[in-house]
Amino acid sequence: MLNSTILFYFVIQSTFIMSNEDYLKDISEIKNLMNKSSRFISLSGLSGILAGIYALIGAATAYYIVSTYSRGYLMLDGKIFYICVAILLAVAALSIITGIYLTTRKAKKNGEGIWDTSSKRLVANFITPLIVGGLYILIILDQQKYGQTGALMLIFYGLALVNASKYSIGDIRYLGYTEIVLGLICALLPGYGFWLWVLGFGVMHIVYGTIMYFKYDVK
Amino acid sequence: MSIITNINKLFDHRIRLGIMSILMVNEYADFNTLKELLGATDGNIASHVKALEKAEYIKIEKQFIGKKPNTRYSTTALGKAEFKKHINALEKLIKKQ
């Protein structure tokens, strides 16, 4: 009789403890699925660092070319200008290719699909401000308003990051805010456009990429 | 014991809990998305979806994308409220420990 009572309590208690562990598991499963289904989290921190390095190399090359071959002035219809545009496009293309490559690698490792609902939503939300910004910059360049180009690049890129952060690692929002602030400073001080561009696209990518790398990649 | 009553029996299964979690943070999700995220078979997903629909926690919309039939799911207001209650109850139970 006593034995069966003890057994009864044991069963009750063990099922109770079991189910509490189950509840904890349930909660973490819920959190995990909510994140996985709404955010694409395999962005690689390393690709941010590399994008920053490309930007610095590109900026240094452009600076060298402009200061040696055209006495520090950038003539907007000359050959030098086209070389600078080519450098800019090369930096952008290299950054995108590196980003896609490293992100694909990380997604595979995480068992996350590379082109699923969450990554598509991320890309759509990231490129909308970028395309609008790009077209706007082309329009004002066509109207011979050159002073704000650097500022606009920083501002629209920052907005794209803030927008994308809702569908990816939330922390990229802070890089976005930083780019926007630098962009606004750049708009006030167009003379420092080059250096603010270097700070925004070069240094900040390296800083944030490193933080991301140590926070999410190294595990 | 009032907390226990808020634990919803219908959510007491990994797949059903999973479907609700996904639909809480997404406007809608289609069958294949649910399948991939939960790593379950067609039949498994279908039966749990049916159970949730029967309780009117989720709605099913059938449509065509081109010529392909596509079924997508979303939560109802009732489903959202019940799920929130369930989570609150879980949290209280864990805190009690």
In whole angstroms, the N-to-C terminal distance of chain B is 14 Å
- As laid out across the biggest beta sheet of chain B, the strand order is 1-3-2
CATH class of chain B: Mainly Alpha
- Radius of gyration of chain B, whole Å: 15 Å
CATH superfamily of chain B: Winged helix-like DNA-binding domain superfamily/Winged helix DNA-binding domain
Shape field of chain B:
elongated
Integer average pLDDT of chain A: 86
- CATH topology title of chain B: Arc Repressor Mutant, subunit A
What are the key terms here?
heterodimer, A: 219 residues, mainly alpha, B: 97 residues, alpha+beta, elongated
Notes on the structure:
- The complex is a heterodimer of chains A (219) and B (97).
- Chain A is mainly alpha-helical.
- Chain A has one domain (45-217).
- Chain A is built from seven helices and no strands.
- The longest helix of chain A has 37 residues, at 2-38.
- With 97 residues, chain B is an alpha+beta fold.
- Chain B has one domain (2-91): Winged helix-like DNA-binding domain superfamily/Winged helix DNA-binding domain (Arc Repressor Mutant, subunit A, Orthogonal Bundle).
- Chain B is 60% helix and 19% strand.
- Chain B is built from five helices and three strands.
- A three-stranded antiparallel sheet of chain B has the order 1-3-2.
- The longest helix of chain B is centred in the C-terminal third of the chain and has 20 residues, at 77-96.
- Chain B starts with a helix and ends with a helix.
- Chains A and B meet through α1 of A and α2, α3 and α5 of B.
